[in-house]
From TrEMBL:
Keywords: DNA-binding, Phosphoprotein, Transcription, Transcription regulation, Two-component regulatory system. The keyword DNA-binding applies. InterPro entries: CheY-like_superfamily, OmpR/PhoB-type_DNA-bd, Sig_transdc_resp-reg_C-effctor, Sig_transdc_resp-reg_receiver, WalR-like, WH-like_DNA-bd_sf. GO terms for molecular function: phosphorelay response regulator activity; transcription cis-regulatory region binding. It comes from Roseateles asaccharophilus. Residues 127-223 bind DNA. Residues 127-223 form the OmpR/PhoB-type domain. This is DNA-binding response OmpR family regulator. Coiled coil: none annotated.
Length: 225
């Protein structure tokens, strides 16, 4: 699956249960217990699904969702998770931009079904073609163009590395995040990331200057001015 989900819940035991459930189903999970931090994380690195509790410190879930809809440059599917079952509470949640609503207590299977449905809905609304300056990536076919010229097919992990950098642009992506993207929770013992980075740069030829190493931080896609 390799989909990313941001779990925003201030009740630590429940958050831990949800994280364990999602990780067991193959999701890459990030966590936040504070509304302001969660909004920052969602805007900096949009998840495939945002699982959002309503009663949060710093910024409540309804206001967080409203600001997310105002500030995000793409639609992030939001599943609100709450014990508030009044019709007016649901009206406020959907009015703020929520895509779905699940009441506590809930069955783990239902939570997974709803998250999977939202991730598919998000994919349907996303163009298969990603363009970053001279770089054009067709997510559906895997075709890669540089300055309009079709490049030979990249090795699988080199392609996934390039796609991760292109989707994160203009953000710098840490080595640990890239390792998580390529190998989930089972990274190889050797420094395989360095090998795949070398293969990627070699495959890009003159375009290898697009891949910039930010020492002590990670990698980023750097586009010409």
């Amino acid at each position: 699956m390799n989909h990313r989900i941001l779990v925003v819940e201030d009740h630590a035991p429940l958050r831990a249960q949800i994280v364990t459930l999602l990780q067991g189903a193959g999701w890459r999970v990030e966590e936040a217990s504070d509304g302001r931090l969660a909004l920052q994380l969602a805007l900096e690195q949009p998840p495939d699904v945002l699982l959002l509790d309503l009663g949060l410190p710093g910024l409540d879930g309804v206001e967080l969702c409203r600001r997310l809809r105002e500030q995000a440059d793409r639609h992030i599917p939001v599943l609100m998770l709450t014990a508030r079952d009044a019709l007016d509470d649901k009206r406020q949640g959907f009015g703020a931009g929520a895509d779905d609503y699940l009441l506590k207590p809930f069955a783990g299977e239902e939570l997974l079904w709803r998250c999977q449905a939202l991730s598919r809905r998000g994919e349907l609304g996303r163009s298969p073609v990603l363009e970053r300056g001279p770089l054009r990536i067709d997510r559906r076919s895997g075709e890669l163009r540089l300055e309009g010229q079709v490049l030979p097919a990249l090795p699988r992990q080199a392609y996934r590395l390039l796609l991760a950098l292109a989707e994160a642009w203009p953000r710098t992506v840490s080595r640990s995040e890239l390792q998580q993207t390529l190998w989930a929770d089972e990274p190889p013992e050797s420094d395989a990331l360095r090998t795949h980075l070398y293969n990627l740069r070699q495959s890009l030829g003159p375009g290898q200057s697009l891949i910039k190493t930010v020492h002590g931080v990670g990698l980023r896609l750097e586009l010409p001015q």
